[in-house]
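Title: Comparing notes on inverse folding

I've been comparing how different people in this forum approach sequence design from structure. To keep things fair, I'm posting one structure and asking everyone to reply with a full sequence. Here's the target:
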Protein backbone atom coordinates (compact mmCIF):
# COMPACT_ATOMS: atom_id res chain seq x y z
CA UNK A 1 0.00 0.00 0.00
CA UNK A 2 1.16 3.54 -0.71
CA UNK A 3 2.53 5.47 2.25
CA UNK A 4 1.48 9.12 1.80
CA UNK A 5 3.41 10.30 4.85
CA UNK A 6 6.62 8.93 3.34
CA UNK A 7 6.04 10.93 0.16
CA UNK A 8 5.39 14.22 1.92
CA UNK A 9 8.36 13.73 4.23
CA UNK A 10 10.62 14.10 1.22
CA UNK A 11 9.19 17.52 0.43
CA UNK A 12 9.11 18.68 4.05
CA UNK A 13 12.69 17.62 4.63
CA UNK A 14 13.92 19.48 1.60
CA UNK A 15 12.03 22.59 2.73
CA UNK A 16 13.64 22.38 6.14
CA UNK A 17 17.13 22.36 4.69
CA UNK A 18 16.35 25.54 2.75
CA UNK A 19 16.41 27.58 5.96
CA UNK A 20 19.16 30.11 6.09
CA UNK A 21 20.25 29.64 2.47
CA UNK A 22 20.12 32.38 -0.10
CA UNK A 23 20.84 32.71 -3.80
CA UNK A 24 23.80 31.45 -5.75
CA UNK A 25 26.21 34.07 -4.48
CA UNK A 26 29.78 34.76 -5.51
CA UNK A 27 32.14 32.26 -7.05
CA UNK A 28 33.55 29.71 -4.62
CA UNK A 29 36.20 27.04 -4.39
CA UNK A 30 33.64 24.29 -3.87
CA UNK A 31 34.21 20.98 -2.06
CA UNK A 32 37.22 18.73 -2.50
CA UNK A 33 37.11 16.26 -5.41
CA UNK A 34 38.52 12.78 -5.92
CA UNK A 35 40.42 11.38 -8.92
CA UNK A 36 38.93 11.64 -12.41
CA UNK A 37 37.47 8.67 -14.27
CA UNK A 38 36.03 8.46 -17.80
CA UNK A 39 32.25 8.95 -17.97
CA UNK A 40 29.53 8.85 -20.63
CA UNK A 41 25.84 8.00 -20.72
CA UNK A 42 26.69 4.83 -22.66
CA UNK A 43 28.99 3.77 -19.82
CA UNK A 44 26.20 4.42 -17.32
CA UNK A 45 23.73 2.36 -19.36
CA UNK A 46 26.23 -0.51 -19.48
CA UNK A 47 26.75 -0.29 -15.71
CA UNK A 48 22.98 -0.44 -15.08
CA UNK A 49 22.65 -3.43 -17.41
CA UNK A 50 25.43 -5.26 -15.57
CA UNK A 51 23.84 -4.49 -12.19
CA UNK A 52 20.53 -5.97 -13.30
CA UNK A 53 22.24 -9.28 -14.09
CA UNK A 54 23.58 -9.57 -10.54
CA UNK A 55 21.65 -10.02 -7.26
CA UNK A 56 20.45 -6.80 -5.69
CA UNK A 57 22.73 -5.43 -2.98
CA UNK A 58 20.84 -3.45 -0.38
CA UNK A 59 22.62 -0.43 1.13
CA UNK A 60 24.37 -1.01 4.47
CA UNK A 61 22.50 -0.29 7.73
CA UNK A 62 22.35 3.44 8.48
CA UNK A 63 24.20 5.17 11.28
CA UNK A 64 21.92 5.18 14.39
CA UNK A 65 22.86 8.82 14.98
CA UNK A 66 20.74 9.77 11.94
CA UNK A 67 17.60 9.14 14.01
CA UNK A 68 18.55 12.18 16.07
CA UNK A 69 18.44 14.46 13.01
CA UNK A 70 14.68 15.00 12.97
CA UNK A 71 12.76 17.70 11.12
CA UNK A 72 13.86 20.50 13.46
CA UNK A 73 17.48 19.34 13.68
CA UNK A 74 17.64 19.02 9.90
CA UNK A 75 16.51 22.61 9.54
CA UNK A 76 19.48 23.76 11.65
CA UNK A 77 21.98 22.45 9.09
CA UNK A 78 23.26 25.05 6.64
CA UNK A 79 25.47 24.30 3.65
CA UNK A 80 28.48 26.63 3.57
CA UNK A 81 27.78 29.15 0.76
CA UNK A 82 31.51 29.44 0.12
CA UNK A 83 31.56 25.76 -0.83
CA UNK A 84 28.85 26.19 -3.48
CA UNK A 85 29.69 24.18 -6.59
CA UNK A 86 29.99 26.48 -9.62
CA UNK A 87 29.05 29.41 -7.36
CA UNK A 88 27.51 32.41 -9.11
CA UNK A 89 26.52 30.41 -12.19
CA UNK A 90 23.08 29.41 -13.45
CA UNK A 91 23.85 25.87 -12.30
CA UNK A 92 25.24 26.68 -8.83
CA UNK A 93 24.83 23.52 -6.72
CA UNK A 94 24.60 22.94 -2.97
CA UNK A 95 24.40 19.56 -1.27
CA UNK A 96 21.90 18.06 1.17
CA UNK A 97 23.15 16.22 4.28
CA UNK A 98 21.77 12.94 5.57
CA UNK A 99 19.09 12.91 8.26
CA UNK A 100 16.32 10.83 9.78
CA UNK A 101 14.27 11.06 6.59
CA UNK A 102 17.27 10.56 4.29
CA UNK A 103 19.36 7.81 5.82
CA UNK A 104 20.89 6.29 2.69
CA UNK A 105 23.82 8.26 1.27
CA UNK A 106 24.24 8.95 -2.43
CA UNK A 107 27.46 9.60 -4.30
CA UNK A 108 27.79 12.78 -6.35
CA UNK A 109 30.41 13.44 -9.03
CA UNK A 110 31.15 16.41 -11.30
CA UNK A 111 31.78 15.97 -15.02
CA UNK A 112 34.19 18.00 -17.10
CA UNK A 113 35.69 17.10 -20.49
CA UNK A 114 34.29 13.58 -20.39
CA UNK A 115 35.72 12.75 -16.97
CA UNK A 116 33.93 12.54 -13.62
CA UNK A 117 35.44 13.40 -10.23
CA UNK A 118 33.58 12.40 -7.04
CA UNK A 119 32.70 15.04 -4.46
CA UNK A 120 34.34 14.13 -1.17
CA UNK A 121 32.13 14.39 1.90
CA UNK A 122 33.52 16.50 4.74
CA UNK A 123 31.72 17.70 7.89
CA UNK A 124 32.94 21.26 7.35
CA UNK A 125 30.76 21.54 4.23
CA UNK A 126 27.90 22.20 6.66
CA UNK A 127 27.56 24.55 9.62
CA UNK A 128 25.51 23.46 12.63
CA UNK A 129 24.95 24.50 16.25
CA UNK A 130 27.36 23.04 18.85
CA UNK A 131 26.68 19.39 19.78
CA UNK A 132 24.46 18.91 16.73
CA UNK A 133 23.97 15.16 15.94
CA UNK A 134 25.37 15.67 12.42
CA UNK A 135 28.76 16.07 14.07
CA UNK A 136 28.45 12.56 15.57
CA UNK A 137 28.07 10.67 12.32
CA UNK A 138 30.69 8.00 11.92
CA UNK A 139 33.18 7.80 9.09
CA UNK A 140 31.39 7.06 5.84
CA UNK A 141 28.68 9.68 6.17
CA UNK A 142 27.59 11.18 2.90
CA UNK A 143 25.15 13.32 1.00
CA UNK A 144 21.41 12.83 0.67
CA UNK A 145 21.02 14.78 -2.58
CA UNK A 146 21.57 18.19 -4.11
CA UNK A 147 19.82 21.41 -5.08
CA UNK A 148 20.40 24.00 -7.80
CA UNK A 149 20.31 27.62 -6.68
CA UNK A 150 18.51 30.48 -8.37
CA UNK A 151 20.87 32.80 -10.28
CA UNK A 152 21.53 36.19 -8.72
CA UNK A 153 18.56 38.51 -9.16
CA UNK A 154 16.05 35.69 -9.73
CA UNK A 155 14.99 35.15 -6.13
CA UNK A 156 16.47 33.40 -3.12
CA UNK A 157 16.54 29.65 -2.69
CA UNK A 158 16.67 26.87 -5.26
CA UNK A 159 14.79 25.97 -8.43
CA UNK A 160 15.62 22.25 -8.66
CA UNK A 161 16.23 19.52 -6.07
CA UNK A 162 16.91 15.78 -6.13
CA UNK A 163 16.33 14.31 -2.68
CA UNK A 164 15.01 11.04 -1.28
CA UNK A 165 14.68 7.70 -3.13
CA UNK A 166 14.16 8.69 -6.80
CA UNK A 167 12.24 11.90 -6.05
CA UNK A 168 12.95 15.26 -7.63
CA UNK A 169 11.05 18.52 -7.98
CA UNK A 170 11.30 22.07 -9.29
CA UNK A 171 9.89 25.40 -8.17
CA UNK A 172 8.39 26.07 -11.60
CA UNK A 173 7.65 29.51 -13.04
CA UNK A 174 6.39 31.07 -9.77
CA UNK A 175 9.33 29.96 -7.61
CA UNK A 176 7.15 27.83 -5.31
CA UNK A 177 7.53 24.09 -4.75
CA UNK A 178 4.47 21.84 -4.84
CA UNK A 179 4.07 18.64 -6.84
CA UNK A 180 7.01 16.24 -7.15
CA UNK A 181 8.17 13.68 -9.70
CA UNK A 182 9.99 10.35 -9.45
CA UNK A 183 12.21 8.35 -11.72
CA UNK A 184 9.96 5.27 -11.52
CA UNK A 185 7.05 3.84 -9.54
CA UNK A 186 6.72 0.11 -8.89
CA UNK A 187 3.41 -1.36 -7.68
CA UNK A 188 1.97 2.03 -6.68
CA UNK A 189 -1.72 1.74 -5.83
CA UNK A 190 -1.86 -2.02 -6.42
CA UNK A 191 -2.27 -5.03 -4.15
CA UNK A 192 1.47 -5.84 -4.19
CA UNK A 193 3.74 -3.95 -1.75
CA UNK A 194 5.11 -0.78 -3.29
CA UNK A 195 8.83 -0.73 -4.03
CA UNK A 196 10.84 2.48 -3.97
CA UNK A 197 13.90 2.20 -6.23
CA UNK A 198 16.46 4.88 -5.50
CA UNK A 199 18.97 7.01 -7.32
CA UNK A 200 22.18 5.81 -5.68
CA UNK A 201 24.70 7.83 -7.72
CA UNK A 202 24.57 11.19 -9.50
CA UNK A 203 26.85 12.82 -12.04
CA UNK A 204 26.40 16.57 -12.65
CA UNK A 205 27.50 18.46 -15.75
CA UNK A 206 27.06 22.10 -16.64
CA UNK A 207 25.23 22.51 -19.94
CA UNK A 208 27.19 24.57 -22.50
CA UNK A 209 24.29 27.06 -22.92
CA UNK A 210 23.25 27.29 -19.23
CA UNK A 211 21.30 24.75 -17.25
CA UNK A 212 22.40 21.49 -15.68
CA UNK A 213 22.58 17.93 -16.98
CA UNK A 214 22.07 15.25 -14.34
CA UNK A 215 22.90 11.58 -14.82
CA UNK A 216 21.60 9.09 -12.28
CA UNK A 217 21.98 5.39 -11.56
CA UNK A 218 18.81 3.72 -10.29
CA UNK A 219 18.96 0.67 -8.03
CA UNK A 220 16.16 -1.43 -6.57
CA UNK A 221 15.26 -5.06 -5.88
CA UNK A 222 13.40 -5.31 -9.21
CA UNK A 223 15.22 -2.90 -11.48
CA UNK A 224 18.44 -1.10 -12.37
CA UNK A 225 18.37 1.94 -14.61
CA UNK A 226 20.31 4.76 -16.22
CA UNK A 227 18.78 8.27 -16.40
CA UNK A 228 19.73 11.50 -18.09
CA UNK A 229 17.97 14.76 -17.11
CA UNK A 230 18.56 17.93 -19.13
CA UNK A 231 17.31 20.72 -16.82
CA UNK A 232 16.64 24.25 -18.08
CA UNK A 233 15.18 27.27 -16.25
CA UNK A 234 13.15 29.42 -18.66
CA UNK A 235 10.83 32.43 -18.25
CA UNK A 236 7.88 30.03 -18.75
CA UNK A 237 9.08 27.63 -16.06
CA UNK A 238 11.46 24.71 -15.74
CA UNK A 239 11.81 22.18 -18.54
CA UNK A 240 13.38 18.76 -18.02
CA UNK A 241 14.15 16.37 -20.87
CA UNK A 242 14.35 12.83 -19.48
CA UNK A 243 15.90 9.73 -21.01
CA UNK A 244 15.64 6.41 -19.16
CA UNK A 245 17.00 2.93 -19.86
CA UNK A 246 15.59 0.27 -17.54
CA UNK A 247 16.74 -3.32 -16.92
CA UNK A 248 14.54 -5.61 -14.81
CA UNK A 249 15.70 -8.34 -12.43
CA UNK A 250 12.15 -9.36 -11.58
CA UNK A 251 8.65 -9.21 -12.99
CA UNK A 252 6.74 -6.05 -11.98
CA UNK A 253 3.00 -6.16 -11.49
CA UNK A 254 2.40 -2.43 -12.04
CA UNK A 255 5.07 -0.26 -13.65
CA UNK A 256 4.67 3.50 -13.27
CA UNK A 257 6.49 5.55 -15.92
CA UNK A 258 6.98 9.32 -15.41
CA UNK A 259 5.25 9.23 -12.00
CA UNK A 260 4.01 12.46 -10.43
CA UNK A 261 2.95 13.00 -6.82
CA UNK A 262 0.95 15.80 -5.26
CA UNK A 263 -1.32 16.77 -2.36
CA UNK A 264 -5.09 17.32 -2.33
CA UNK A 265 -6.76 17.79 1.03
CA UNK A 266 -9.91 19.68 0.03
CA UNK A 267 -11.14 22.16 -2.58
CA UNK A 268 -14.28 23.79 -3.90
CA UNK A 269 -15.61 20.33 -4.82
CA UNK A 270 -15.22 18.90 -1.30
CA UNK A 271 -16.69 21.30 1.30
CA UNK A 272 -17.46 18.46 3.72
CA UNK A 273 -13.73 17.70 4.11
CA UNK A 274 -12.85 21.26 5.13
CA UNK A 275 -11.43 21.37 8.66
CA UNK A 276 -9.25 24.45 8.38
CA UNK A 277 -9.99 28.17 8.16
CA UNK A 278 -8.43 28.32 4.68
CA UNK A 279 -11.05 27.82 1.91
CA UNK A 280 -8.93 25.36 -0.14
CA UNK A 281 -5.73 23.39 0.46
CA UNK A 282 -4.10 21.52 -2.41
CA UNK A 283 -0.94 21.49 -4.53
CA UNK A 284 -2.89 20.40 -7.62
CA UNK A 285 -6.60 20.49 -8.40
CA UNK A 286 -6.84 18.10 -11.35
CA UNK A 287 -5.35 15.58 -13.76
CA UNK A 288 -5.28 16.75 -17.36
CA UNK A 289 -4.86 14.30 -20.22
CA UNK A 290 -4.39 14.68 -23.96
CA UNK A 291 -5.14 11.30 -25.51
CA UNK A 292 -3.50 9.81 -28.56
CA UNK A 293 -6.71 10.53 -30.47
CA UNK A 294 -6.54 14.20 -29.46
CA UNK A 295 -9.30 14.28 -26.84
CA UNK A 296 -8.67 16.63 -23.96
CA UNK A 297 -9.81 15.34 -20.56
CA UNK A 298 -9.98 17.03 -17.15
CA UNK A 299 -10.39 14.94 -14.01
CA UNK A 300 -10.76 17.05 -10.82
CA UNK A 301 -8.91 15.53 -7.86
CA UNK A 302 -10.74 14.23 -4.81
CA UNK A 303 -9.94 13.16 -1.27
CA UNK A 304 -11.73 9.79 -1.27
CA UNK A 305 -13.00 7.78 1.73
CA UNK A 306 -10.64 4.93 0.78
CA UNK A 307 -7.74 4.33 -1.62
CA UNK A 308 -9.06 4.59 -5.18
CA UNK A 309 -7.20 3.82 -8.41
CA UNK A 310 -8.65 4.98 -11.73
CA UNK A 311 -7.33 3.70 -15.06
CA UNK A 312 -7.65 5.69 -18.30
CA UNK A 313 -6.86 3.48 -21.29
CA UNK A 314 -4.98 5.07 -24.18
CA UNK A 315 -2.41 4.53 -26.90
CA UNK A 316 0.51 6.86 -27.51
CA UNK A 317 -0.82 9.68 -25.27
CA UNK A 318 0.14 13.21 -26.22
CA UNK A 319 0.56 14.16 -22.59
CA UNK A 320 -0.76 14.11 -19.04
CA UNK A 321 -0.07 16.04 -15.88
CA UNK A 322 -1.13 17.28 -12.46
CA UNK A 323 -2.18 20.91 -12.68
CA UNK A 324 -3.06 23.75 -10.33
CA UNK A 325 -5.51 25.62 -12.56
CA UNK A 326 -6.95 27.83 -9.83
CA UNK A 327 -4.53 30.77 -9.42
CA UNK A 328 -6.79 33.07 -7.37
CA UNK A 329 -5.22 33.90 -4.00
CA UNK A 330 -8.66 34.64 -2.54
CA UNK A 331 -9.60 30.99 -3.05
CA UNK A 332 -6.79 29.87 -0.70
CA UNK A 333 -6.01 32.82 1.60
CA UNK A 334 -2.65 31.24 2.43
CA UNK A 335 0.13 33.83 2.63
CA UNK A 336 2.72 31.31 3.86
CA UNK A 337 2.39 28.18 1.73
CA UNK A 338 1.05 30.10 -1.31
CA UNK A 339 -1.00 27.31 -2.85
CA UNK A 340 -2.01 29.67 -5.67
CA UNK A 341 1.63 29.56 -6.88
CA UNK A 342 2.14 25.79 -6.97
CA UNK A 343 3.52 24.60 -10.34
CA UNK A 344 1.76 22.55 -12.96
CA UNK A 345 3.78 19.52 -14.08
CA UNK A 346 3.14 18.08 -17.54
CA UNK A 347 4.50 14.88 -19.09
CA UNK A 348 5.02 14.96 -22.85
CA UNK A 349 6.28 11.72 -24.47
CA UNK A 350 9.17 12.30 -26.89
CA UNK A 351 8.94 8.75 -28.23
CA UNK A 352 5.72 6.70 -28.50
CA UNK A 353 4.57 5.18 -25.21
CA UNK A 354 2.49 2.57 -27.05
CA UNK A 355 -0.69 1.03 -25.60
CA UNK A 356 -1.33 1.35 -21.88
CA UNK A 357 -3.06 3.65 -19.45
CA UNK A 358 -2.72 6.76 -17.33
CA UNK A 359 -3.39 5.76 -13.73
CA UNK A 360 -4.55 8.06 -10.96
CA UNK A 361 -4.21 6.95 -7.34
CA UNK A 362 -6.05 8.97 -4.69
CA UNK A 363 -5.43 8.25 -1.00
CA UNK A 364 -7.53 9.47 1.94
CA UNK A 365 -5.87 12.25 3.92
CA UNK A 366 -6.83 14.60 6.74
CA UNK A 367 -3.83 16.93 6.58
CA UNK A 368 -1.81 18.95 4.11
CA UNK A 369 1.50 17.21 4.83
CA UNK A 370 0.56 14.04 2.93
CA UNK A 371 1.32 13.61 -0.74
CA UNK A 372 -1.83 11.57 -1.34
CA UNK A 373 -2.10 11.88 -5.13
CA UNK A 374 -0.11 9.82 -7.65
CA UNK A 375 -0.35 9.79 -11.47
CA UNK A 376 1.74 7.77 -13.92
CA UNK A 377 1.75 5.87 -17.22
CA UNK A 378 1.52 2.06 -17.19
CA UNK A 379 2.42 0.04 -20.30
CA UNK A 380 -0.20 -2.50 -21.37
CA UNK A 381 2.27 -5.39 -21.37
CA UNK A 382 3.39 -6.44 -17.92
CA UNK A 383 7.13 -6.26 -17.33
CA UNK A 384 8.95 -9.57 -16.86
CA UNK A 385 12.37 -10.54 -15.49
CA UNK A 386 15.09 -9.80 -18.04
CA UNK A 387 13.05 -7.15 -19.88
CA UNK A 388 14.66 -3.94 -21.08
CA UNK A 389 12.69 -0.72 -21.64
CA UNK A 390 13.56 2.76 -22.86
CA UNK A 391 11.55 5.95 -22.37
CA UNK A 392 12.03 9.58 -23.39
CA UNK A 393 9.75 12.39 -22.25
CA UNK A 394 9.70 16.06 -21.34
CA UNK A 395 8.57 17.46 -17.99
CA UNK A 396 7.31 21.07 -18.01
CA UNK A 397 6.80 22.86 -14.70
CA UNK A 398 4.70 25.91 -15.52
CA UNK A 399 2.20 28.43 -14.14
CA UNK A 400 -0.12 28.33 -17.16
CA UNK A 401 -1.74 25.39 -18.91
CA UNK A 402 1.11 23.46 -20.58
CA UNK A 403 -1.21 22.36 -23.42
CA UNK A 404 -3.25 25.50 -24.21
CA UNK A 405 -5.77 26.08 -26.99
CA UNK A 406 -9.31 24.97 -27.76
CA UNK A 407 -11.63 23.52 -26.64
CA UNK A 408 -12.91 25.38 -23.55
CA UNK A 409 -11.43 24.30 -20.21
CA UNK A 410 -13.02 23.37 -16.91
CA UNK A 411 -12.28 26.16 -14.43
CA UNK A 412 -14.32 24.98 -11.42
CA UNK A 413 -16.16 21.95 -10.05
CA UNK A 414 -18.60 22.30 -7.16
CA UNK A 415 -20.65 19.70 -5.34
CA UNK A 416 -23.57 19.94 -2.89
CA UNK A 417 -27.01 18.68 -1.94
CA UNK A 418 -29.44 17.92 -4.74
CA UNK A 419 -32.32 20.21 -5.65
CA UNK A 420 -32.85 23.82 -6.64
CA UNK A 421 -31.51 26.64 -4.45
CA UNK A 422 -34.12 28.02 -2.08
CA UNK A 423 -36.13 24.79 -2.02
CA UNK A 424 -35.85 21.85 0.39
CA UNK A 425 -32.96 19.50 -0.51
CA UNK A 426 -33.80 16.70 -2.90
CA UNK A 427 -33.40 13.58 -0.76
CA UNK A 428 -31.03 10.99 -2.20
CA UNK A 429 -29.60 13.38 -4.81
CA UNK A 430 -26.34 15.31 -5.22
CA UNK A 431 -25.96 18.45 -7.33
CA UNK A 432 -22.89 19.20 -9.46
CA UNK A 433 -21.98 22.53 -11.03
CA UNK A 434 -19.14 22.71 -13.59
CA UNK A 435 -17.81 25.96 -15.05
CA UNK A 436 -16.14 26.16 -18.49
CA UNK A 437 -14.22 29.01 -20.14
CA UNK A 438 -12.51 29.41 -23.49
CA UNK A 439 -12.60 30.93 -26.96
CA UNK A 440 -15.00 28.29 -28.31
CA UNK A 441 -17.71 29.76 -26.05
CA UNK A 442 -17.15 33.43 -26.83
CA UNK A 443 -20.20 35.18 -28.24
CA UNK A 444 -22.57 32.26 -27.62
CA UNK A 445 -25.90 32.83 -25.88
CA UNK A 446 -28.78 30.75 -24.56
CA UNK A 447 -30.20 30.84 -28.10
CA UNK A 448 -27.03 29.44 -29.71
CA UNK A 449 -27.98 25.79 -29.31
CA UNK A 450 -25.36 24.92 -26.67
CA UNK A 451 -26.39 21.87 -24.62
CA UNK A 452 -24.92 19.77 -21.83
CA UNK A 453 -23.97 16.16 -22.51
CA UNK A 454 -23.94 14.40 -19.12
CA UNK A 455 -23.85 10.67 -18.32
CA UNK A 456 -23.46 8.59 -15.15
CA UNK A 457 -22.52 4.99 -14.47
CA UNK A 458 -25.56 2.79 -13.61
CA UNK A 459 -27.56 2.62 -11.45
CA UNK A 460 -27.06 6.37 -10.99
CA UNK A 461 -29.12 8.66 -13.21
CA UNK A 462 -28.88 12.27 -14.34
CA UNK A 463 -31.76 14.72 -13.89
CA UNK A 464 -32.34 18.40 -14.67
CA UNK A 465 -29.10 18.89 -16.64
CA UNK A 466 -28.85 22.42 -18.06
CA UNK A 467 -26.13 24.54 -19.65
CA UNK A 468 -26.12 28.35 -19.68
CA UNK A 469 -23.80 31.38 -19.72
CA UNK A 470 -23.16 32.78 -16.25
CA UNK A 471 -24.50 36.29 -15.90
CA UNK A 472 -21.75 38.87 -15.41
CA UNK A 473 -18.95 36.41 -16.18
CA UNK A 474 -17.10 35.13 -19.24
CA UNK A 475 -17.87 31.47 -18.75
CA UNK A 476 -20.56 28.81 -19.06
CA UNK A 477 -21.98 26.44 -16.46
CA UNK A 478 -23.43 22.93 -16.48
CA UNK A 479 -25.68 22.09 -13.52
CA UNK A 480 -27.34 18.73 -12.88
CA UNK A 481 -28.59 16.39 -10.16
CA UNK A 482 -27.42 12.80 -9.70
CA UNK A 483 -29.91 10.29 -8.28
CA UNK A 484 -30.08 6.54 -7.88
CA UNK A 485 -26.97 6.57 -5.73
CA UNK A 486 -25.67 3.29 -4.32
CA UNK A 487 -22.81 2.48 -1.96
CA UNK A 488 -20.07 2.52 -4.59
CA UNK A 489 -18.51 5.49 -6.39
CA UNK A 490 -20.38 6.98 -9.37
CA UNK A 491 -18.44 7.79 -12.55
CA UNK A 492 -19.63 10.99 -14.23
CA UNK A 493 -18.85 12.42 -17.66
CA UNK A 494 -19.85 15.82 -19.05
CA UNK A 495 -19.02 18.31 -21.80
CA UNK A 496 -20.59 21.18 -23.72
CA UNK A 497 -21.61 20.66 -27.32
CA UNK A 498 -23.36 22.44 -30.17
CA UNK A 499 -24.86 20.08 -32.68
CA UNK A 500 -22.22 17.45 -33.37
CA UNK A 501 -19.34 19.70 -32.25
CA UNK A 502 -17.76 19.46 -28.79
CA UNK A 503 -17.11 22.94 -27.43
CA UNK A 504 -15.28 21.90 -24.26
CA UNK A 505 -12.88 19.35 -22.94
CA UNK A 506 -14.37 16.24 -21.36
CA UNK A 507 -14.96 16.47 -17.61
CA UNK A 508 -14.63 13.17 -15.74
CA UNK A 509 -15.45 12.84 -12.07
CA UNK A 510 -15.95 10.29 -9.33
CA UNK A 511 -18.72 10.92 -6.83
CA UNK A 512 -18.67 9.13 -3.46
CA UNK A 513 -22.21 8.88 -2.02
CA UNK A 514 -20.84 7.60 1.30
CA UNK A 515 -18.63 10.66 1.85
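Reply #1:
Here's my take.
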Amino acid sequence: MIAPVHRRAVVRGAAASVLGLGAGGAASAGPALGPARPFSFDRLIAAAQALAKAPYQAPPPPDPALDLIDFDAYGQIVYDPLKTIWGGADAAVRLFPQGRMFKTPVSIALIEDGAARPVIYAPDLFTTPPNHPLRRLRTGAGFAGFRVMNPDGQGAGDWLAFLGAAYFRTAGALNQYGASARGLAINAGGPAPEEFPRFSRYWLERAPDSGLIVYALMEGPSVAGAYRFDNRKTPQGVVQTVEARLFFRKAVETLGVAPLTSMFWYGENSPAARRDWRPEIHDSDGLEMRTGAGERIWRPLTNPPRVITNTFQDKDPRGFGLLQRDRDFDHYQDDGAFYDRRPNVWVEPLSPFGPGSVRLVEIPSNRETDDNIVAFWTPERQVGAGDELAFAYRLSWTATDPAPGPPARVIATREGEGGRPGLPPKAGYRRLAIDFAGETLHGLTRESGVVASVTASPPARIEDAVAYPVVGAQHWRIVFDVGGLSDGPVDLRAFLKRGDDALSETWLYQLFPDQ
